[in-house]
Amino acid sequence: MGDAVRRMGRLKGRRWLPALLAVSVSAAAYAGGLLAPLERSLGDLRFGLLSRPASGTLVVVEIDPRSLRTLDTWPWTRTHHARLIDRLVAAGAAQIALDIDFGSRSTRAADDALTRSLQGAGGRVVLPVFRQAEMRQSGKMDVAFNAPLPEFRRQARIASVNAVPGPDGLLREHAATHAWEEDSVIESMPALLAAPRRPLFRTFHIDFSIRPESLARISYVDVLNGRFDARLVAGRKVLVGATAVELGDHFSTPLYSVLAGPVVQALAYESIVQGRTLKPAAGWLVMLATAAAVLLLARPFGRWPWRRGALLLGGVAVAVPAASLAVQASTPMMLDVTPVLLAATLQFVLGLALRVDRLDFALMLRGLRLRHNSAFMRSVVQHSSEGIITVTADHIVDFANPAAGMIFGMEPDELSGRPLETLLGDGEVRTVESVLAKSIGRPRPVTGRRPDGETVALELTANEMEVDGQCRHVVLVRDVSERRAQEELLEYLALHDTLTGLPNRALLMDRVEQEIARAEREGKRVALLLLDLDRFKQINDTLGHGVGDQVLAEFGQSLSTGLRRIDTVARLGGDEFAVLAPSLTDAEQARQIAERIAATVHRPFEIGDFSLDIGVSIGIALYPDHGRESSELMRGAD
User: Fold this and answer.
1) Strand 95-98 relative to strand 237-242: parallel, antiparallel, unpaired?
2) Which pTM was predicted?
């Protein structure tokens, strides 16, 4: 009874082990930042699914390519900026922010014109300040503070336009304030423009679900020349800045790839005024939700069959991101989901592992050790009786075992570094990629080439694998020269008469079928002649089979004399021979061929000490006169 109680206790402890391990690993990965790249990708996906328009309270005046072409020389004279401010003030702009550097002096007249325009704006203009790295004469890097000239600052407000990309190089966050000279703090441009609305946090995530194309935009040159609808500006805030790519004020961002600096500032402004200054949920809250989810999943993952568990895991993988999407759509909170997903996956996998039979688990571990034992595998490869080579993506051999070296007639080290095409016959060189592709998973016959020029019949079987992101082919090489020769010999014997070396009945009938098909296409005739030797049985019976065989061999050889290259002479068996004469135009040509054959064999055959007179009987059938099938021609000629 006591043993049973202890066993039950161990089983209950093991049931909660996957949950504890899953929460611990997930918490460590989350705290260590290992899940951050995946979480950022999921956040970008949420931005794409949650699409919202701009508020319409801000207008971007773009220094765009058309403005650069129209006003020509860059940088422009400050009289242009002065005129722009005057135009916007006259149109009733509520506030005008210029994302343009005014930290250095221009001409006296241009600076005076800008000062007057700033003064005439009555404090509605905001000028930029920014911090940047600077190399001192001592060789050390320092921070430089860049601000407008004093006379400009007296007539306008200032705000910071600094923005810092994240670890992945994408600009995701913006600050409401930035540190400034002498430990002071200055508002950022979006925060100042958004007043009286204030961001909820000092640093916040820009809501990139706000569509940049929904921002109101006007070209700088149109405002400068008065060619714009003043109603677009009246009562609204205006942000002036460079959107032309050649001016370099661009940031890599989620979802939209690259956005101009003023557009990013405008999206940060929109995030504030729409109450969408996003902030990730506190880490403790995320881990609390993770622990709660793991506790809820512990019982089903521990008891359900693995298929139902997998379906439940799939449901979690859908429901948790959907919940995060709903939270972000309704509140300015970004709820991280990767810890929950990782913990649920680990809990499912660990639960399965604990339910595996001990013996099966031990065998699995043993198999893993064998598969990952590089010394063992190298020994297998080195002692393999079949050639093994590995080929890089650009078809260079980078490994060969001793058996491969023997096949190609060189040392394995000599094979390494050679292009695969140098090991193949001339017919294969131009199709190396095709040879590998057609060898995947099945043997392919090819011709190999050795350094001395000797060719060898090979059979390649290739498999693709990826190593460090690079494609590799593992090629099994077999020398099949002997087998190929045996196959060719068997094929020859199957289609030829062993005594005379002439085609046999099977090969003759195949060629008859081919010539009938060709004659039908070309409108020609085909003649089939069947020949029987006269008095052959008497010779065979009186002089013996040896003499009879010599007679048959010499008769078969003499038949080919005087025939065309396209004609076929075959031995059908015994003393019966056949001649196939294709591409004839009339029956007269067939008769002439028969006469030439009769004349050729109408002579004594000198066999040893015997001079033998042998006659021949010839039957002729013509396609299509006597039949349209091979069997009909055979019957007609017999």
Assistant:
1) parallel
2) 0.55
